[in-house]
Structures are given as structure tokens and as C-alpha cells.
Specification:
Layout lengths: L5 E3 L2 E3 L12 E13 L7 H17 L4 H8 L10 E5 L6 H7 L11 E3 L2 E15 L1 H31 L10
Antiparallel strand pairs: 1-2, 3-4, 3-6, 5-6
Amino acid sequence: VSPTLLRTGAGFHVIKLVDRKDAGAMTIVQTRARHILLRASPQVSQTAAINRLAALRKQIEAGTLTFEQAARDNSEDSSAAQGGDLGWTSPGAFVPEFEQAMNPLPIGGLSAPFVTRFGAHLLQVTDRRNITLEPKQLREQARNVLREQRFEEAYAEWTRDLRARAFIEMREPPY
């Protein structure tokens, strides 16, 4: 309880601290996953890539093929040599479609084939862990958010300026 009264425009207040949380300790859930990526091309349609991934999924679930081997043999990604392993990743590291497929999966879970802007994916979550962010990492995240906000503001100002300086004259074509 505060030893003195606090006076504000609304009146006098007595302040009592009920609970305190360590503001410096923020934990996040990191996920370790692996995937198989098939890109659509003139030779392979998106539907064909999804069907191929569905067939690989059936083989993996049946136990006739391991995910690592399927990734090494089929994935069109730089992670193919590591069996599709993407390493430990924090929230926000992937495109939203990828994270929407990854987040609900349990450890060892295998996704259905899904599509992102990079191509068709088959995904397996191998592990999850909670890590505590250090104050240095929190500051870096805050800097990134502020930088992103400033970028949006600068972009909006640039487009307004560009529109204000633009001169467009429309003439009737001669007949």
C-alpha cells in the first residue's frame, strides 16, 4: 500500500500492489519442423503436386517411407539435403499459410498437403520448446516493430507526395 495519498485530477487515491510479474521475462514457443516443397511449373501443375504429396503422405503414414527420405528424394527446397529440416523457428518466421498449418499439429503430426505462395507443402512437426527471450532480443523485436511502423508512414507520405507532384493531361485524339 502506498504510504502517501496520490492526488490526480479525479481526486485522491490509495494504491495497493496486488501482484507483480517480471516484465523482462517473455516466453515464446519455438517449433522445429520439416517439410517437403513441390513447386508448380509448366511441367507440374499445382494439382499434380498436391496429389504427389498426398501419395507421399500415405506412404509415410504406412511406414514404407520415412519423412526424411521422402524430403531428400522429392523436395525442391534447400532443406532437402537435411531431410527437410527447417530448424528451430519462432512465431512469425514463416508465411501465414504455413504457420496456420504448422501451429495446430501435435509433435510428430503430419499435415495434409497445403499451398503457399512458394508451392505445395507437406509438413511434419518434430518438436516444440518454450524459450525465454533475453532483454536484448525483446529490444530488437521492439526496434523491428517501430522500424516497420516508420516504413509504413514513410511509404504513405511518399505516395501522397508523388500523387501531389504528378501532372496528367488527357487530350482527345485527333480525328
